[in-house]
Amino acid sequence: MNINATLLGQSIAFAFFVWFCMKYVWPPLSAALAERQKRIADGLEAADRASKDLEDAKEKVAEELKAAKTQAASIIDQANKRASQIVEEAKEQGREEGQRMVAGAQAEIEQEVNRAKEQLRAQVAGIAISGAEKILEASVDEAAHARLTESLAESL
After folding, report:
1. Torsion-angle region of residue 128: left (phi > 0), alpha (psi -120 to 50) or beta?
2. On the CB side of 54, how many CA atoms lie within 13 Å of its CA?
3. Residue by residue, what is the 3-state secondary structure of the chain?
4. Are 111 and 128 in contact (CB under 8 A)?
5. Distance between alpha carbon 62 and the CA centroid of its chain, in Å?
6. Using one digit for the tens of pLDDT, what is the confidence trace for 19-39?
7. pTM of the full structure
8. What is the tens place of the pLDDT at every residue in 36-70?
9. Cα 4 to the chain's mean position, in Å?
10. For site-directed labelling of 32, which of 12, 22, 76, 143 has its Cα 20 to 30 A away?
11. What is the rounded distance in angstroms from the CA atom of residue 45 to the CA atom of residue 27?
12. Alpha-carbon distance 20 to 151, whole Å?
């Protein structure tokens, strides 16, 4: 019956081994496993958060890009309107300047016409006076009077 004593000794040694493992080996192993499990769970959670943050950032970038495009289009429209307005103002100023120049030229022409008329009147008056002097100096002869009148008409 040696088998029983050996079996009993092996059972006691096995029980001591299990108790020793449960007391000193198992808690650090289970703590290490629990810590590793927690780190993995935290890593997965962080990856999920990062993925969600990335999606949010992409959406925000898309919105900002859309807003920037809208703003750029608005600025371009305003610039085009302002350019058209400047062109219209320049055209209007050109028209006004042209009208002023035409009015000035017309006034100058009118002055020149008036000066020419005055000179012509002065010449006509001088010719009439010289003709009258010649008529009065000469005899009141009809033939001489007709000749003087014809020469006066030719000089005009």
Report:
1. alpha
2. 6
3. CHHHHHHHHHHHHHHHHHHHHHHHHHHHHHHHHHHHHHHHHHHHHHHHHHHHHHHHHHHHHHHHHHHHHHHHHHHHHHHHHHHHHHHHHHHHHHHHHHHHHHHHHHHHHHHHHHHHHHHHHHHHHHHHHHHHHHHHHCCCCHHHHHHHHHHHHHHC
4. no
5. 23
6. 999 999 999 999 999 999 999
7. 0.44
8. 999 999 999 999 999 999 999 999 999 999 999 99
9. 103
10. 12
11. 26
12. 161
Nearest-10 crossing angle of helices 142-155, 26-137: 170
Which amino acid does the sequence have at 53?
D
